[in-house]
Design a protein that fits this description.
It holds the Pfam family TPR_1. This protein is mostly helical. It is built from 13 helices and no strands. Residues about 160-165 have low confidence and may be disordered.
């Protein structure tokens, strides 16, 4: 039987030192010995992400989700994958899932998830939401230096405070719906490249800003069914 804790310690040190391939060589036998070890699977995914192999990292994380769909670290690392690929909306979804499932005693990890959530909001231009996330991160875990760094930049006026330009949860649904429409039109189940994804997302954001955001007050009064019907009625020339 492999000494799990000892091996995990070695793997973490190798990841910290940049020895990605060495980390993978140590972690794979451990997973072979225990295929349901979620912590080991997440470390393997981290290694592949750091190596730049996002597809393999996602494959490992989806395997982890099948074992436990509520394991917070898996959602957190999926969020990081989406974030690094520029899919900030999906990243936000995953960071929220991580936050919902962390235990109260896991304060530092939850704080990290809030920090990452703030970074994703910031990338979308949602500065108010980013600030709220970073403040929550510090509230939960006052030693969070990354969140403090961002708040310090805000305090010094290095980032302009603006009202959130989108209703994030409605936009997530709108975006998912339009991405599905686009893929069905093209007869495929995924994008061929990051460039294609960014082009399509840009058109979706433009449609939201020109057709939906203008009636945000009316949108707030709509039922879910009315919103979905309205979203379906909006046509985008991809």
């Amino acid at each position: 039987m492999l000494n799990r804790d000892y091996i995990l310690t070695i793997v973490e040190k190798k990841l910290d030192s940049g020895d990605i391939q060495g980390a993978i060589k140590f972690i794979e036998p451990l997973i072979k010995d225990n295929p349901n070890d979620l912590e080991a699977l997440n470390l393997l995914a981290i290694a592949h992400r750091l190596k730049g192999d996002f597809a393999e990292a996602m494959r490992v994380l989806k395997k982890a989700l099948k074992i436990d769909p509520n394991y917070p670290e898996t959602h957190y690392h999926i969020g990081l994958l989406y974030y690094e690929q520029g899919n900030y909306l999906k990243a936000i979804e995953e960071f929220y899932k991580a936050i919902e499932n962390y235990l109260p005693r896991e304060r530092s990890w939850m704080s990290d998830a809030y920090t990452a959530l703030g970074e994703a909001f910031y990338k979308l231009g949602m500065v108010d939401d980013a600030i709220k996330s970073w403040k929550k991160a510090v509230e939960i875990y006052p030693k969070n230096r990354r969140a403090k760094y961002y708040l310090d930049k805000i305090e010094k006026g290095k980032v302009r405070k603006t009202k959130s330009p989108i209703l994030v949860f409605d936009f997530l649904r709108f975006s998912d719906m339009k991405i599905d429409e686009y893929l069905r039109q093209k007869g495929k189940d995924k994008f061929d490249s990051e460039k294609e994804y960014k082009r399509v997302l840009g058109k979706i954001i433009n449609a939201w800003n020109t057709k939906v955001a203008k009636i945000s007050d009316k949108l707030k009064r709509m039922t879910d069914k009315e919103k979905l019907n309205y979203f379906k009625s909006i046509k985008i020339k991809f």
